[in-house]
């Protein structure tokens, strides 16, 4: 029943008990027992929570726009931002599952695997940042622009030895989700960076790295996501250890040589 709920989350939990039980191939009482184990008073409370979450997942800048006529918090903008975003960063780093994080580091340091990275309209910046960092640390790293044809071409070469890193935050990008699902179907290991409400791609991901996106309205904040990206880079550096120093020294030498020839 849990797998059925997660495969179409949160929509699957919005149907009546009988519908969810039928989809999962279990009895109605089984659904009720699981709901109780999850800490809800009854199925109605679960549905109410899921409706609220669905509304939050689909809310955009217009829905989240602050009431500028209200007095609200009188503290300076910068101090307000520091408090809200600082809390989100701390909560996100504390909330990362160490097993998932180590799995992501392991995939990114496996030199037998190529790494492909992409993201949504905004989060593509995070994908590019991670791609440029990883390309200094290891070979065979490819960044995909947020463009359908580039992703389709990349799918031609994906295998079970590929690692695909995807960034997808609400409101979720259908093209990013479909690319990630196609990559998983090709056998690739998918590392998904997403928010705590979970991209629809979550069910197909091999590794899930979530972060809070609760920032000053009307927009979400992706600062916590960047913190996790940098933590991953630090983990990759530590995993490679001393041999990586020679690669970085060679990069510095090549870069200096190219600069001298200008």
Gyration radius, rounded? 21 Å
Distance between the termini: 64 Å
Number of contiguous helices = 12
Strand content: 5-15%
Helix and strand content put the structural class at alpha/beta
State the share of residues found in helices, binned by percent. 40-55%
The main β sheet shows up as:
5 strands, parallel
What is the helix/strand order?
A: HHHHHHHEHEHEHEEHH
- DSSP summary, beta strand count: 5
Averaged pLDDT, please? 89
| Form type | globular
Q: Low-confidence stretches at least 5 residues in length (pLDDT < 50)?
A: none
Question: What does this entry look like structurally?
Answer:
By secondary structure, the protein is an alpha/beta fold. The protein is 55% helix and 10% strand. It contains twelve helices and five strands. The chain has a five-stranded parallel sheet. Strand 1, helix 8 (124-137) and strand 2 (141-143) form a beta-alpha-beta unit. The relative contact order is 0.13.
Features:
262 residues, alpha/beta, 5-stranded parallel β-sheet, 12 helices, 5 strands
Short description:
This protein has 12 helices and 5 strands. With 262 residues, it is of the alpha/beta class. Strands 2-1-3-4-5 form a 5-stranded parallel β-sheet.
Protein topology:
Blueprint lengths: L1 H6 L9 H8 L3 H10 L5 H16 L2 H4 L12 H19 L2 H11 L6 E5 L4 H14 L3 E3 L4 H8 L7 E6 L5 H12 L3 E7 L11 E5 L11 H18 L2 H18 L2
Parallel strand pairs: 1-2, 1-3, 3-4, 4-5
Helix pairs in contact: 2-3, 6-11, 7-11, 8-11, 9-10
């Amino acid at each position: 029943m849990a797998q059925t709920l997660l495969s179409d989350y949160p929509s699957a939990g919005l149907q009546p008990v009988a519908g969810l039980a039928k989809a999962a191939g279990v009895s109605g009482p089984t659904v009720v027992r699981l709901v109780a184990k999850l800490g809800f008073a009854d199925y109605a409370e679960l549905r109410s929570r899921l409706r609220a979450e669905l509304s939050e997942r689909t809310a955009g800048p217009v829905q989240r726009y602050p009431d500028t006529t209200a007095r609200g918090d009188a503290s300076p903008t910068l101090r307000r931002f520091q408090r809200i975003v600082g809390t989100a960063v701390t909560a996100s780093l504390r909330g990362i599952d160490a097993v998932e994080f180590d799995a992501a580091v392991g995939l990114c340091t496996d030199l037998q695997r190529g790494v492909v990275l992409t993201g949504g309209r905004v989060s593509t910046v995070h994908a590019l940042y991670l791609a440029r960092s990883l390309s200094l640390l290891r070979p065979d790293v490819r960044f995909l622009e947020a463009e359908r044809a580039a992703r389709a071409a990349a799918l031609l070469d994906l295998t079970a030895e590929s690692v695909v890193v995807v960034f997808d935050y609400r409101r979720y990008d259908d093209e990013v989700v479909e690319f990630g699902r196609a990559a998983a179907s090709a056998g690739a290991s998918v590392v998904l960076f997403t928010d705590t409400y979970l991209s629809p791609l979550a069910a197909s991901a091999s590794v899930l790295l979530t972060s809070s996106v609760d920032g000053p309205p009307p927009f979400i904040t992706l600062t916590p996501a960047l913190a996790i990206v940098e933590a991953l880079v630090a983990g990759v550096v530590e995993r490679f250890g001393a041999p990586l120093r020679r690669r970085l020294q060679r990069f510095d030498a090549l870069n200096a040589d190219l600069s001298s020839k200008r």
